[in-house]
């Protein structure tokens, strides 16, 4: 396997069982290695994207805005400002003389046109270079319009996606604390780090409702500025999945004393565990009973269906390459539930702790990889004789070109994969790709 | 129309993505973006969503300190890594806004790199093109990269003077379009060097082995011979002189140049076919004449459905010009021709292709975004919209059918298999246009109806 891995990257690939576990991570992407990673701006945009009644103005030349236009599956229950691509579309003279004037004019124009609840202004690489002071512009426009304008310092080259999450969290904390928190239930949470892809947050909110818990705000899926401004009134922050909004939870703990827990809504075990831990936190008998009833109910519906899938899927081999490593934990468990074996797992931005955890829960022989690229991935997939690959848009054609099934587990997905119903959808998707007869006709399987 | 300063839902892409696409059409080439990692990843994602093909775009992955001290070291290391892993025959380096702004001198860096590292003869060719997005769209990036390739490689080699090799510079067409051009090359027995050639590199089969670089693309030797071709044909009425590879080949090597419109619709295709006849000295093969005959027959059968139907067209300038020409021919009424490009030649190109057929000129807008296109579409109340997937929102909001053409098409399958050009392309377009109108009529009717 090392033939395809660049020498500088060998420390970022590990095969379980081959010597003591050591994996390098958190490095800058290697030039020329065709990383699957994006940039700081991408991270910020992902986190803030689903706030649907805020304006998202991208300050820079057109590309950064246009490539992020309506590409996420984050759904809204009313306004849909998030699905627009707003840009200052900088031109040569703006780059030479500075883009602040144009930014201000654009911001004023768009606020007048859409009357948003707040505005986020993202800085991109070039803004970092020409030195526009987006903070000052935001301040001026906030004053003029009464609309809160928040700068997001997300110059793309200042790190990777994870730095973008933090920039987004720093922007978000500005929104919190203004709202009236009168009348919020003592049994209340904020949902953090869920993006309402394919309506997933509606599934989760329904669970909390059935448990007797008030959801004060959802940050950021189906997010509303007004709700977020009241987030400091909740008793607990429930942070889903990867580190995307963990920084915000920490800031809120410091500033408002709100504790947080980290959960995952993917897969049966993790979903049930998430709900039990929330119930545990409130130490209320009724809530705990509701929770048990809910989980029982859902499992009774789910298990018979899963058994059907499992019958055919058992023994198949899966590979996982995702943005954040946290998601990979749940995926490994979900595949186990289907009787499948995970033989490759990797992420774009995992931390040391993430990879240690991955090492602990995978089987011997599994490849663990950080910040991989298409050539490596294709080699691993072949070597490990994979039947299904889970990843995002950039991974999809790699799988298909090898004649391997694929499951989209990314920000664009159109199928809800969270919750108990999400596990069913996941199993169904895995089944529909692994069992498709098309693979009989691809060269690798022919003859 | 109110003057606007922000851009809402742009009708264009940024310049380097065009360059990456063009480089992708050269055999054994790897596109390389000199800038931060994000741009390359975003562009790959964007291209994948249209073609459904892997596309590896390397990046020099600049970070903060490089932005301050210059990106040279990363560029060099990146190229070394690409050479090691991909063994490319060519690396096409495009700049991004970042490296343009910090003023990296890529030509110089590449020269230095060659002196330091590339001594042997079989080391890959390095070509660079300057692509600041704040000055031009993806189409300037595409044309600019094409021209850079030609400038760098074309020679006057005078291999066999009697060989009638012709350069064909098609611009940004679909893989299916390029395959069609290759078919013409065979049928006219006229060897064509098509640059770039995306027909296989971005529409590849599943193979037993995963290729590092997909097969296909214009062979480098063929590009070298472009200086000794007997003629160049370049599609596109809006290509500027500075970006025209055909013009370069004439000025530098005296290769006769024919710069014609993209052959969409009958008259633009006629021009192309008669040019092929003239250069090859052969009559149009009967098969293609029959396609033209059948097209006219179909247009007669369907003319009443499309007559007077108002159509909004948007997208890349040369595509819009071609589609507008076609619409005018079939009796439809283009009411808005819009593009995010800004070549300065769009208006006159539209005017000249509809001359003599259309009584009223459509609204012609360059440098627009979809906010303005939507406003105008609301006012103009068209029956049909033609353009890429990004018009879906308007189509849905206003209940007007959208016929998808061009790039990107990411909410349907098969964008790479759309044929836009030639008589056959016109036939397919005509059928789709007429059927969309018939389908809408059926849908809108209270009772529906079974026959025409
Ligand atoms: S910085 Fe320039 S090159 Fe990069 S995505 Fe933005 S517009 Fe395109
Ligand atoms: S220019 Fe910077 S911010 Fe924009 S996509 Fe590229 S790396 Fe990201």
TrEMBL record, chain A:
Q: Which GO terms describe its biological process?
A: protein-containing complex assembly
What Pfam families does the record tag this protein with? Oxidored_nitro (PF00148)
Q: Which residues form the Nitrogenase/oxidoreductase component domain?
A: 39-434
Q: Which domain of life is it from?
A: Bacteria
Pathway membership:
Cofactor biosynthesis; Fe-Mo cofactor biosynthesis
What GO molecular function annotations does the UniProt record carry, in alphabetical order? nitrogenase activity
Return the InterPro entries for the record: Nase/OxRdtase_comp1, Nase_comp1_CS, NifE, NifE-like
Q: Which UniProt keywords apply?
A: Nitrogen fixation
Give the family, as the similarity comment puts it.
Belongs to the NifD/NifK/NifE/NifN family.
What does this chain do? This protein may play a role in the biosynthesis of the prosthetic group of nitrogenase (FeMo cofactor).
Q: Would you tell me the protein name for this molecule?
A: Nitrogenase iron-molybdenum cofactor biosynthesis protein NifE
Automatic annotation (TrEMBL), chain B:
Q: GO MF annotations for this entry?
A: nitrogenase activity
Pfam families found in the cross-reference section:
Oxidored_nitro (PF00148)
Answer yes or no on keyword Iron-sulfur: no
InterPro entries registered for this protein in UniProt: ChlB/BchB/BchZ, Nase/OxRdtase_comp1, Nase_comp1_CS
State the UniProt keywords alphabetically.
Answer: Nitrogen fixation
What domain of life?
Bacteria
Annotated ranges, domain Nitrogenase/oxidoreductase component:
14-437
Which family does the similarity line name? Belongs to the NifD/NifK/NifE/NifN family.
Protein name in the entry? Nitrogenase FeMo-cofactor scaffold and assembly protein NifN
């Amino acid at each position: 396997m090392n033939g395809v891995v660049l020498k500088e990257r060998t420390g970022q690939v590990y095969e379980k069982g081959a010597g003591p576990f050591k994996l390098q991570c958190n490095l800058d992407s290697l030039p020329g290695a065709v990383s699957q990673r994006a940039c700081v701006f991408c991270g910020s945009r992902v986190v803030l994207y689903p706030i649907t009644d805020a304006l998202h103005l991208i300050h820079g030349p057109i590309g950064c805005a246009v490539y992020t236009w309506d590409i996420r599956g984050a759904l809204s229950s009313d306004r849909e400002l998030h699905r627009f691509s707003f840009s200052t579309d900088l031109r040569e003279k703006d780059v030479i003389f500075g883009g602040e004037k144009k930014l201000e004019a654009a911001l004023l124009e768009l606020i007048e046109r859409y009357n948003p609840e707040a505005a986020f202004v993202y800085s991109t690489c070039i803004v970092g270079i020409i030195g526009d002071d987006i903070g000052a512009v935001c301040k001026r426009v906030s004053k003029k319009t009464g609309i809160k304008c928040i700068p997001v310092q997300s110059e793309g080259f200042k790190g990777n996606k994870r730095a973008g999450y933090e920039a987004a969290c720093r922007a978000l904390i500005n929104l919190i604390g203004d709202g009236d928190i009168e009348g919020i239930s003592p049994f209340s949470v904020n949902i953090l780090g869920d993006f309402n892809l394919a309506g997933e947050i509606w599934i989760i909110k329904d669970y909390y409702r059935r448990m007797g818990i008030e959801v004060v705000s959802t940050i950021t899926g189906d997010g509303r500025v007004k709700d977020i401004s009241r987030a400091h009134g909740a008793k607990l922050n429930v942070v889903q999945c990867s580190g995307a909004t963990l920084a915000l939870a920490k800031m809120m703990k410091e500033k408002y004393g709100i504790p947080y827990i980290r959960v995952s809504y993917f897969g049966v075990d993790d979903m049930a565990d998430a709900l039990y831990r929330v119930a545990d936190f409130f130490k209320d008998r009724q809530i705990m009973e509701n929770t048990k009833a809910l989980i029982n109910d859902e499992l009774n519906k789910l298990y018979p269906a899963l058994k059907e899938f499992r019958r055919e899927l058992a023994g198949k081999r899966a590979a996982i390459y995702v943005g954040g490593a946290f998601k990979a934990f749940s995926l490994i468990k979900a595949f186990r539930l289907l009787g499948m074996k995970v033989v490759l797992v990797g992420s774009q931005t995992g931390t040391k702790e993430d990879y240690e955890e991955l090492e602990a829960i995978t089987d011997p022989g599994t490849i663990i990889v950080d910040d991989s690229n298409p050539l490596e991935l294709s080699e691993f997939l072949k070597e490990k004789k994979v039947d299904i690959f889970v990843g995002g848009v950039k991974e999809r054609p790699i799988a298909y070109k090898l004649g391997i099934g694929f499951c989209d587990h990314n920000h664009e997905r159109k199928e809800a994969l969270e919750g108990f119903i999400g596990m069913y959808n996941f199993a169904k998707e895995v089944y529909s790709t692994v069992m498709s007869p098309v693979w009989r006709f691809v060269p690798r399987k022919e003859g | 129309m109110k003057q606007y300063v922000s851009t809402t839902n742009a009708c264009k892409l940024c310049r380097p993505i065009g360059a990456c696409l063009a480089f992708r059409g050269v055999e054994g080439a790897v596109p390389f973006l000199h800038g931060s990692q994000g741009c390359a990843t975003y562009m790959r994602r964007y291209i994948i969503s249209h073609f459904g093909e892997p596309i590896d775009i390397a990046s020099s992955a600049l970070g903060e300190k490089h932005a301050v001290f210059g990106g040279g070291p990363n560029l060099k290391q990146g190229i070394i890594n690409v050479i090691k892993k991909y063994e490319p025959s060519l690396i096409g380096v495009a700049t991004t806004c970042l490296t343009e702004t910090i003023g990296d001198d890529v030509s110089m860096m590449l020269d230095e790199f060659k002196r330091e590292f590339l001594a042997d003869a079989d080391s890959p060719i390095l070509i660079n093109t300057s692509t600041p997005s704040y000055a031009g769209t993806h189409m300037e990036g595409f044309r600019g990269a094409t021209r850079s390739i030609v400038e760098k490689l074309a020679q006057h080699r005078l291999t066999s003077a009697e060989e009638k090799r012709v350069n064909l510079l098609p611009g940004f067409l679909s893989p299916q379009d390029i395959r069609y051009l290759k078919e013409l090359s065979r049928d006219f027995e006229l060897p064509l060097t098509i640059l770039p050639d995306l027909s296989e590199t971005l529409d590849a089969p599943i193979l037993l082995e995963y290729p590092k670089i997909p097969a296909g693309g214009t062979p480098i030797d063929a590009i070298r011979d472009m200086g000794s071709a007997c003629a160049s044909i370049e599609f596109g009425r809006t290509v500027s002189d500075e970006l025209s590879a055909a013009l370069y080949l004439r000025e530098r090597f005296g290769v006769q140049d024919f710069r014609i419109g993209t052959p969409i619709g009958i008259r633009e295709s006629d021009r192309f076919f008669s040019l092929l006849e003239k250069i090859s000295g052969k009559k149009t093969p009967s098969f293609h004449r029959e396609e033209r005959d059948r097209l006219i027959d179909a247009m007669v059968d369907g003319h009443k459905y499309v007559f007077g139907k108002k159509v909004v067209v948007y997208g890349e300038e040369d595509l819009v010009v071609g589609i507008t020409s076609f619409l005018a021919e079939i009796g439809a009424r283009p009411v808005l021709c819009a593009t995010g490009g800004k070549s300065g030649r769009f208006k006159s190109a539209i005017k000249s292709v509809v001359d003599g057929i259309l009584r009223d000129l459509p609204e012609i807008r360059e440098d627009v975004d979809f906010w303005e296109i939507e406003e105008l579409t609301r006012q103009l109340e068209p029956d049909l919209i033609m353009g890429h997937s990004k018009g879906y929102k308007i189509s849905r909001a206003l209940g007007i059918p959208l016929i998808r053409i061009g790039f990107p098409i990411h909410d349907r399958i098969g964008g790479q298999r759309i044929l836009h050009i030639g008589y056959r392309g016109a036939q397919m377009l005509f059928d789709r246009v007429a059927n969309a109108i018939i389908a809408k009529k059926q849908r809108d009717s209270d009772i529906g109806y079974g026959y025409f």
